[in-house]
């Protein structure tokens, strides 16, 4: 029986996530499977993979052929690196402890690279947020200047109107005050 390691679609319309399964190559995509070894959710950022490493390694070692997407997932998780190192142990190139040490070093190096990438992305997000904040501050300052100029113009116009009204009222009051004195 030819076995495949492939994705089985789950989720709902517009939000697919996948089960990583071992299935007969003749079985339909979402049909019968032998064993479920993990899940893959491409909707999160970064994509989430939950994999039973030992079972995946077992099935790769016994000859199960992965689909292209599953091959990249398994490679990313280190299954193929471990298979390669176990092949070296079988040939006598090095012992199992050395293989485990090399695998752990590879895993730590990969984690450090991922942490550096995450830090770089976080820093880029902060820089972008600061740039947007500065741009918004400039826009707000310009709006504040325009509002202040408009208020100053309104205050000046109001002061002129009051001065004109006072100027008109002052001669009328003087005329009214002089009129009873003449009579």
How would you portray this structure in words?
This protein is of the alpha+beta class and 183 residues long. It has a domain at 3-93: Ribosomal protein S16 (S16 Ribosomal Protein, Chain: A, 2-Layer Sandwich), CATH 3.30.1320.10. Helices cover 65% and strands 18% of the residues. It has helices at residues 53-61, 68-77, 79-91, 96-182, and strands spanning 3-12, 15-24, 35-41, 48-51, 65-66. The longest helix has 87 residues, at 96-182.
Average predicted local confidence, pLDDT = 89
The tally of helices reads: 4
Largest beta sheet: what is the strand line-up? Answer: 4-3-2-1-5
Helix content: 55-70%
User: Could you please say which CATH topology of the domain at 3-93 applies here?
Assistant: S16 Ribosomal Protein, Chain: A
The ordered H/E elements are: EEEEHEHHH
Q: Summarize the main sheet.
A: 5 strands, mixed
Give the termini distance in whole angstroms. 130 Å
Give a brief description.
Helix content is 65%, strand content 18%.
Keywords:
single chain, 183 residues, S16 Ribosomal Protein, Chain: A, 65% helix
Tell me the layout of helices and strands:
Elements (H helix, E strand, L loop, with lengths): L2 E10 L2 E10 L10 E7 L6 E4 L1 H9 L3 E2 L1 H10 L1 H13 L4 H87 L1
Parallel strand pairs: 1-5
Antiparallel strand pairs: 1-2, 2-3, 3-4
Helix pairs in contact: 1-3, 3-4
